[in-house]
Design goal:
The complex is a heterodimer. Chain A is an alpha/beta fold. Chain A has three domains: 63 residues, Alpha-Beta Plaits (2-Layer Sandwich), CATH 3.30.70; 281 residues, no CATH class; 59 residues, Electron transport complex subunit B, putative Fe-S cluster (3-methyladenine DNA Glycosylase II, Chain A, domain 3), CATH 1.10.15. In chain A, 48% of the residues are buried. In chain B, strand 2 and strand 3 form a beta hairpin. By secondary structure, chain B is α+β, with helices and mostly antiparallel strands. Chain B has a five-stranded antiparallel sheet with strand order 1-2-3-5-4, covered by helices on one side. Classes of the chains: A alpha/beta, B alpha+beta.
Chain lengths: 424, 147
């Protein structure tokens, strides 16, 4: 788990100037500046991508699948997140965007709003069959899942053990495409198109299954330009594909990119939608204290306003949200999933987790309780000596974290420039 | 008996400060996690501190949670200066509350606070003097499960 390739986020050492913007932005305090460059502590990073948003040098990259990687596959399938529909101007309809994706180099494009709806009815059924415990928490946001595993171990059992729509879509394709196309499973590449840096981690190191059904994830940032060019160059063709649509879209599943979109279809349950990393942390604290037991389902997305606010999206989230809301209004409550199909898949456990989520507890101050207590005392003493300016000049995000690093043997008190001054 | 190693920290709480409700218990929870205590123990201590913290915020003028941890037990002593509790037996009853309508509208004051503390602590003492304040003392044993 500590190998360099685990996380999706990486610092571009040439661009990094060692400023402190990412330090303070990181919600899990996983970044330190050492020798003038930012470094990510693997054990603490949850791949939320907040640092990407705050880096003024554009020095934080997300390791996603590149177009060259696609050449490894004989048959290439794209499963774009519905966020993609909000990235282009108002006149560009989803069917045109899907057409352009095929032109960009995919043999097949699988539309996700339908599977979002399928997922939604699976949640409905799960809530109905499991009156306790409450509140249950959705597993869609991979960062929330990792946050809970690390910081809220007691909440692992509250996560609905149903895979997110992107995995279910890929699973359906895996089950059918090799047979239909007569291509070996290894020749088929199923790629998610996403605004989210954490999807790559959830694909390479899934938390609830042995192996992801997806082969990779391309960021919207990377694929925006090729799609845009196709839309510009083949206007007539895109209009034709709009007039003769090949895909059926689901109204219920269309708004999943927005906070609250996942719970919108669940009319019989009390649901809460939280978005943004800091608010998610606040609400999870309350859940852990048993304060939200009167709610049925909690939807948390760590990006502001939901996936539409993902750091690898191109369009600002307000415009993207407005466009997706327009689509949601146009399509209304249109459903496309047959409930008996859903029942069949649900009863076969087709959508369920392979194995339960396990907590990933952070290491204590010391494995020996007496030592840990002494270290905690020492940390309080060290903290009192520090100036309390939380300036980040020492390389840690704040004075408390420097004190913590010192007792964990990762830093020295003298790293603080104010302490140096006093020594002189 | 050798001198016991103990971690001590004070957490002041201001009465009426609903906007910061839960911050102290959250800090205590994180700290106990860092000390390597088990999930169930940490959670019980968090719930106990949260209820005590909320009682100060809702009813007292000001107060303080004193946390002390040894390798064998967590002790939380809560002292507040406030109106105190007239009838402790009554206050210990589930569902009994003197919360105002306003507090109930905020979702507090279900009358479960003190019973919840009693349920989650291994030892619990409460003393109160009307017009002056209340003192709670809770212990959670860290090397044994609550019977």
């Amino acid at each position: 788990m500590t190998e360099d390739t685990y996380h999706s986020l990486q610092i571009n050492m040439e661009k990094c100037t060692g400023c402190v913007h990412c330090l303070t932005a990181c919600p899990t305090k996983a970044i330190r500046i050492k020798n003038g460059k930012a470094h990510i502590i693997n054990e603490l990073c949850i791949d939320c991508g907040e640092c990407i948003r705050f880096c003024p040098q554009d020095a934080i990259d997300s390791r996603t699948t590149s177009f060259l990687d696609l050449n490894a596959f004989q048959y290439k399938v794209a499963i774009p997140a519905t966020v993609l529909y909000g990235q282009f101007d108002n006149a560009t309809l989803p069917s045109e965007i899907l057409f352009a994706l095929r032109r960009v180099g995919f043999d097949y494009v699988y539309e996700l709003s339908t599977i979002n709806e399928l997922n939604n009815s699976a949640f409905d059924k799960y809530l109905h069959n499991h009156p306790k415990p409450r509140p249950l928490i959705s597993s869609t946001c991979p960062v929330v899942v990792r946050l809970i595993q690390r910081l809220y171990p007691s909440l692992c059992e509250l996560i609905v053990p149903i895979e997110p729509a992107r995995e279910i879509a890929a699973k359906i394709l895996r089950a059918n495409l090799p047979r239909v196309l007569k291509i070996s499973p290894a020749g088929i590449g199923i790629i998610h198109i996403t605004p989210c840096p954490a999807k790559m981690v959830s694909i390479n190191h899934p938390a609830s299954m042995e192996k992801s059904y997806l082969d990779g994830a391309i960021s919207i940032r990377d694929i925006f330009k090729p799609i845009f060019q196709v839309l510009q160059q083949s206007k007539e063709e895109t209009i034709m594909c709009h007039l003769f649509p090949e895909t059926i879209f689901s109204g219920i599943g269309m708004g999943t990119a927005l906070s609250g979109g996942e719970t919108r279809g669940l009319k019989n349950y009390r649901t809460v939608a939280v978005s943004g990393i800091r608010d998610t942390i606040r609400v999870l604290n309350q859940v852990e204290l048993g304060l939200l037991k009167d709610m049925d389902l909690l939807e948390c997305t760590v990006c502001p306003d939901g996936c539409v606010g993902g750091p690898l999206a191109v369009e600002n989230r307000f415009l993207a949200k407005s466009r997706i809301l327009r689509l949601v209004n146009l399509m209304g409550e249109r459903t496309v999933v047959d409930s008996s199909d859903m029942d069949l898949l649900y009863n076969k456990d087709f959508m369920s987790f392979h194995h339960p989520l396990k907590p990933v507890p952070a290491p204590p101050l010391d494995p020996d309780p007496a030592q840990a207590i002494q270290k905690a005392n020492r940390r309080n003493e060290l903290f009192k000596q520090l100036p309390g300016k939380d300036c980040g000049a020492c390389g840690a995000p704040d004075c408390w974290t420097l004190a913590d690093d010192v007792i964990r043997g990762m830093a020295a008190l003298i790293d603080c420039p104010f302490m140096k001054k006093e020594k002189k | 008996m050798t001198e016991e190693i103990v971690f001590e920290q004070e957490f002041p709480v201001k009465g009426g400060d609903f906007s910061r409700a839960g911050q102290v218990s959250c800090k205590i929870k994180n700290l106990l996690q860092e000390l390597g205590l088990g999930t169930e123990i940490v959670l019980r201590a968090a719930i106990v501190s949260y209820e005590a913290e909320m009682n100060i915020i809702m009813y007292a003028w000001q107060g303080c949670l004193d946390l002390s941890v040894t390798p064998h037990r967590i002790r939380i002593v809560v002292k507040d200066s406030g109106p105190g509790i007239e009838d402790i037996n009554l206050a210990m009853k589930e569902g009994y509350s003197t919360a105002t309508l306003e507090m109930r509208e905020l979702g507090f004051g279900a009358g479960m606070g003190l019973p919840n503390i009693k349920k989650n602590a291994d030892e619990f003492w409460i003393t109160s003097e009307a017009g002056r304040g209340t003192r709670l003392e809770m212990t959670i044993l860290t090397n044994g499960q609550k019977p």
